[in-house]
Design brief:
Strand order of the largest sheet: 1-2
Order of helices and strands: EEHHH
Number of helices: 3
Shape: globular
Number of strands: 2
Radius of gyration: 14 Å
Structural class: mainly alpha
Strand content: 5-15%
Length: 79
């Protein structure tokens, strides 16, 4: 809901939306936002390793074109 709660961001074009005929583009990037991650860690008590891992899996899944529903299922399996 708030930009200050964003723990990670994938910026790029998902593989499912690319073509071999596309022009060269900037590399895809994944951003991790330290303050929101640390605040979530403090608030939830979840192990920091698992929290960062889940953020990375979420953003990498966006790179591969997974929907938010698919990502939620993957994250549920990782618990």
């Amino acid at each position: 809901e708030s930009g200050w709660e964003l723990t990670g961001l994938y910026r790029g074009t998902p593989l499912t939306e690319r073509s071999v005929m596309d022009n060269a583009r900037q590399p895809d990037l994944i951003f991790l936002y330290r303050e929101p991650i640390l605040l979530e860690w403090i608030e939830t008590g979840v192990d920091l390793y698992h929290l960062v891992r889940n953020v990375m899996v979420h953003e990498i899944a966006h790179h591969f074109g997974f929907s938010d529903r698919d990502i939620a299922a993957i994250e549920e399996e990782m618990q």
